[in-house]
Amino acid sequence: MTELLEYILDHEEAFQNQYRLSSLYADFGQQHELNPDGYKSNVSAWIKALSDATRAGIVPTQGATHDLLNIRASDELAQALTHIQYGKPTCLPAVFHDAVQNKEMMPLNEFLQSKESIYSRSWLPSPWKVLQWSLRQVGVLGKPSGLPQKLGAGNFVLIKNIELAADEILKKMKEHVSTADRVLSRAEFMKRFANILNTTAPLTATDLNIMLVHLARDKQAITYSTQTIKFKPEHEAVPEPITQEDEAIANLRDTLANINAQIQPLHEKITLADAAAREAVASKQMVRAKAALRSKKLAETALAQRTDVALQLETIFAQLQQASDQVGIVEAMRAGAVALKSLNEKVGGAEGVQGVVDAVNEQMATTEEITNIINEIDQPLDEAEIDNEFEALEKAEKEKEEEEEAAKTATRLAELGEVEKKRTEMERAEKARQANEEKKEEADVDEASESLANLSFVQPDSDEQMKDAEDERRVPIPA
């Protein structure tokens, strides 16, 4: 199983169902007429799988290169997608044909050479084309010509992938507000954005050309030349043309990058030469030690020169950056001055404003004078009458409060009388209860005394009487 097929089977949900997988590998061209929804679903699954796999950097384009924005339709692609059970995907010609018709893919040469944006109305399917397709599905119009049966070799730009990359690039460029930071060379552009889609698979030279065309023609976000790329400020509608200053900034970036790239190897060369010299001295190889020291000295001299040059270039670049920013500041100030002048002219200048203020003050004074005149016509108020009426109101309010207080006092007294009445009744009831209990106790005592009086105790008169009584109790026992 190839890496491409393994990736699709592992990452694409549509390819993880065995029943669906057999349908995807079958020749579903007939479904274009018999089952349009199933046909469209299968084509969409294949387009998504191919776009994702290309973006992952596992679809070979030519040789060992892996473009991320461009896919090559060829027999090699079909071979890489061959399944051990279902064989080659015979549907690939229909997939590429439908993707081009629906503007999800575009032939590479046509994309690079077209002067018209992919977002223009003529490039997108028109409402009439959509209506024609609907009428064909219901049988009102005749069917279009049959789908291709053979996969023709060719490179196709994946629209979804270039849109994702463009959005990420423009998002990152928002972090750079300086004018100089928006001017890049091609090398600097690739250094910044090579891994914008995939951290392990960088953009290729073909991808760079595709991306520059898309950003300039379709997004209108950059202008570019052979070596210089210039992003437009966010507040501008279209990018400005590249100037000589922009070319100088881009060239300075490349030169500074080249100088900095030479510094690290020189450090390593100095370290190796120093180690070799020490080793040669330790082994008594004086000729070799001197040669290593000479090499170290030359590397140190070169490093010092490169470091000085890099410092000078960085200083120049900082000055260029400051100067370019100052240009923007001065232009903003100039535009602000023009706007202020226009606004001042609209208000008539300082003299016009002063005249307006004087007129307003004059009218305000007139209004105040009229108000004073009207106030003089009004009858003065009788303050004594107002005081008498206020006293009457105050007296009535006080009487009302006294009546309310008297009513509250009477209510409280009535409540207290009722409470006292209830308390007296309860005391009487308690006394009556106690009297009844005392009478009952006396009756019980009398009854007990009477019972005791009725009891009698008989004492025998003599011992004879006691003996007779004892004899009577004896019973004779037979012999």
Provide key terms for this protein.
extended; three-stranded antiparallel beta sheet; mainly alpha; Helix Hairpins; 16 helices; 479 residues
Outline the low-pLDDT stretches. 128-145, 456-460
Order of helices and strands: HHHHEHHEHHEHEHHEEHHHHH
Distinct helical segment count? 16
Strand tally, please? 6
Task: State the shape.
Answer: extended
Distance between the termini: 141 Å
Average of the residue pLDDT scores? 81
**How much helix is in the residues?**
55-70%
Estimate the strand proportion: under 5%
Could you say which structural class the secondary elements and strand pairing correspond to?
mainly alpha
Radius of gyration: 57 Å
Quaternary structure of the protein: single chain
Q: What's the story with the biggest beta sheet?
A: 3 strands, antiparallel
Q: Strands of the biggest beta sheet: in what spatial order?
A: 1-3-2
